[in-house]
């Protein structure tokens, strides 16, 4: 294993170097965008922006080959000599970390103005758009979609037929940070230990949680709305309910976008940020297969009815701006625990 690790690091470095060489050769006058959103959806959005503005885009996606490094880590490493102009992230904890590291340039444009305050940085270093909700996915062959029954199951009894993704990563980590914010450190840790003691099924990701429920191994579980829609489109016996905190708030997790400090293409970068935060962009993503939920005001007639129903839940989302201070403490605890 010790011999293999340096080889893997070398291979990864070569892959990144080749990708950057190919990118930089086309990026002289183009806008370089690091994008963690699925390329199958993001590419269409970026193409529409190119056609609309004439500004060329050179994207670098967070592929399987570079996930061990990650776009957030790349941006931190490139802080003194940035290669990227705009970062499109598919969540918010990483972009909050970049703000703390001084990687982001504050910008409050017309796009920023249409996004509700709880889904953007008050200083303008990032803003959210096109969100997912944390939800209960329910197997309707096993139980009725009833919030009271779900609460009763979590309150007492066996949890072996309830699935959640490992909370060290992704939106489940954000979910845990929201629980920390809502209930405090002591109560969250007590809740987590209690769930483990009652045999809650911890799986490797939201897709696995969705599969456990849609396949009948679990009665219900946590996942995101895009995973729920995948199961629904596959004609699985599933229903959905929002995860609600005791305050009645939901957990709504947006895509986020930011300008990279030190960009030499600031005006072009601002135009892309405004476009990603626009109604036009949110409508396109709402009509995509993943049914991303608009955060700003949109024409109801332009988005699917099932997404409009989710928007009502998203509008009730907990404020996310305070998670920046919670995240490092929560992740440290989870690393020790799991």
Tell me what the structure shows:
The structure is a single chain. The chain is an alpha/beta fold. The protein has 2 domains: 27-130 and 255-313, D-Maltodextrin-Binding Protein, domain 2 (3-Layer(aba) Sandwich); 132-251 and 332-337, Periplasmic binding protein-like II (D-Maltodextrin-Binding Protein, domain 2, 3-Layer(aba) Sandwich), CATH 3.40.190.10. It is built from 14 helices and 10 strands. It has helices at 4-24, 39-53, 71-77, 93-100, 110-113, 147-155, 170-183, 185-197, 206-214, 225-233, 266-276, 279-286, 305-314, 323-337, and strands at 31-35, 57-61, 86-89, 104-105, 127-139, 162-165, 201-203, 220-224, 238-242, 252-260. Strands 1, 2, 3, 4, 5, 6, 7, 8, 9 and 10 form a 10-stranded mixed sheet that branches. β1, α2 (39-53) and β2 form a beta-alpha-beta unit. α7 crosses α8 (185-197) and α7 (170-183) packs across α14. It is globular and about 60 Å long.
Question: Tags for this entry?
Answer:
338 residues; alpha/beta; D-Maltodextrin-Binding Protein, domain 2; 14 helices
Instruction: Assign the structural class, choosing from mainly alpha, mainly beta, alpha/beta, alpha+beta, or little secondary structure.
Output: alpha/beta
Give the integer mean of the pLDDT values: 91
Q: Quote the beta fraction.
A: 15-25%
CATH topology of the largest domain: D-Maltodextrin-Binding Protein, domain 2
What fraction, in percent, of the residue positions are helical? Answer: 40-55%
* Highest CATH level, the class of the largest domain: Alpha Beta
Shape: globular
CATH-derived architecture of the largest domain: 3-Layer(aba) Sandwich
CATH superfamily of the largest domain: Periplasmic binding protein-like II
Distance between the termini: 23 Å
- Helical element count? 14
Work out the number of β strands: 10
**Can you tell me the residue ranges where pLDDT is under 50 for at least 5 consecutive residues?**
1-14
The main sheet comes to:
10 strands, mixed
**Number of structural units classed as domains:** 2
Task: Encode the helix/strand succession as letters.
Answer: HEHEHEHEHEHEHHEHEHEEHHHH
The radius of gyration computed from the alpha-carbon positions, rounded to a whole number of angstroms, is: 20 Å
């Amino acid at each position: 294993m010790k011999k293999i690790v340096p080889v893997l690091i070398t291979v990864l470095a070569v892959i990144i170097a080749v990708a950057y060489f190919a990118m930089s050769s086309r990026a002289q006058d183009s806008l370089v965008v690091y994008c963690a959103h699925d390329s199958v959806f993001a590419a269409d959005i970026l193409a529409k922006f190119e056609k609309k503005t004439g500004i060329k885009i050179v994207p670098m996606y967070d592929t399987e080959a570079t996930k061990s490094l990650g776009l957030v880590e790349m941006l931190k490493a490139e802080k003194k000599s940035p290669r990227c102009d705009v970062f499109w992230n598919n969540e918010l904890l990483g972009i909050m970390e970049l703000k703390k590291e001084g990687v982001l340039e504050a910008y409050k444009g017309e796009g920023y103005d249409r996004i509700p305050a709880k889904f953007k940085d008050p200083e303008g270093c990032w803003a959210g758009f096109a969100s997912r909700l944390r939800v209960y996915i329910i197997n309707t062959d096993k139980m009725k979609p009833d919030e009271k029954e779900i609460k009763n199951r979590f309150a007492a009894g066996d949890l072996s037929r309830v699935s959640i993704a490992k909370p060290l990563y992704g939106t489940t980590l954000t979910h845990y940070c929201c629980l920390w914010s809502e209930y405090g450190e002591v109560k969250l840790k007590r809740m987590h230990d209690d769930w483990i003691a009652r045999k809650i099924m911890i799986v490797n990701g939201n897709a696995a949680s969705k599969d456990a429920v849609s396949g009948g191994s679990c009665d219900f579980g946590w996942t995101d709305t895009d995973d729920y829609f995948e199961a629904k489109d596959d004609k699985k016996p599933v229903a959905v309910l929002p995860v609600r905190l005791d305050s009645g708030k939901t957990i709504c997790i947006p895509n986020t976008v930011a300008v990279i400090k030190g960009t030499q293409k600031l005006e072009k970068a601002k135009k892309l940020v405004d476009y990603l935060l626009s109604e036009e962009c949110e409508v396109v993503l709402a009509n995509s297969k993943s049914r991303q939920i608009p955060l700003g005001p949109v024409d109801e007639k332009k988005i699917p009815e099932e997404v409009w129903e989710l928007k009502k839940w998203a509008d009730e989302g907990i404020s996310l701006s305070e998670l920046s201070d919670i995240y490092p403490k929560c992740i440290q605890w989870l690393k020790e625990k799991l």
